[in-house]
Each structure stands twice: as C-alpha cells, then as structure tokens.
Design brief:
It contains six helices and no strands. The chain has two domains: about 55 residues, no CATH class; about 50 residues, no CATH class. Helix content is about 55%, strand content about 0%. Helix 4 packs across helix 6.
C-alpha cells in the first residue's frame, strides 16, 4: 500500500491530473483507496493497467507481453519512439529485444531521409 503521490507517479500524472481523472478511472475499475488508511495498492494498479491493454483498439491482449507479441506477429513492426520508450522491465526480454530490433530496422540508414 502506498500513498496517492506514489500511485500518481505510477500513472505518470501530476496530482492535479490524477484527481481530475480519478472519477473516470474508478468508473473503469481502477483500484480504490483503502477505506481506513487512504493508500493505494500498487500491485492492483499494475494489474488494472495490464487489463486496460485489452480495451485498446484492436486489443485482446491481457498484458504488455501479449500486446507486443500480437503486434509483432501481425507484422506491425512500425515501432515509434513513444512505443519503444513505453517498453519497460515487465515486458519479456525476448519480446523487448524483437521490438527494439524492429525499431532499429524502421530507422533510416545513415544519409537517408525519413519517409513521410
């Protein structure tokens, strides 16, 4: 159990942003504060975040590993900078390596211009 400030950091929001969107998050099943001490369960938050992957367009993945594996299997190797930066330690190392290799392949070769 952690205070709201740590839960906010886990979501990469400011405290103001968090308080503003909290009612919407709770409506989508976001874990509630402990009624007695007011803290949040980070493991429950992580599980909720993983469950949200299935709600993404074209979803179906239950967690980050499944999401990235599905993208790679479908041939979607257009891994942008934001995608590459979103890969964290929770993603299986072999999947992470495949994603990063796809990112490198998508970059222009030295002296080439990016396709627009």
């Amino acid at each position: 159990m952690v205070p709201a400030t740590k839960a906010v950091r886990r979501l990469h929001l400011t405290e103001g942003e968090f308080e503003r969107v909290l009612p919407k998050l709770l409506a989508r099943g976001f874990p509630r504060r402990d009624p007695d001490i007011g803290n949040f369960d980070l493991k429950a938050i992580d599980a909720w975040l993983d469950s949200q992957m299935a709600m993404q367009p074209g979803g179906g993945a239950r967690n980050a590993n499944e999401y990235w594996a599905q993208r790679l299997a479908s041939g979607d190797v257009t891994v942008g900078r934001a995608d590459a930066m979103a890969i964290d330690a929770s993603v299986d190392p072999s999947i992470r390596q495949a994603i990063l290799e796809a990112r490198l392949k998508s970059l222009p070769k030295r002296g080439e211009r990016r396709k627009r």
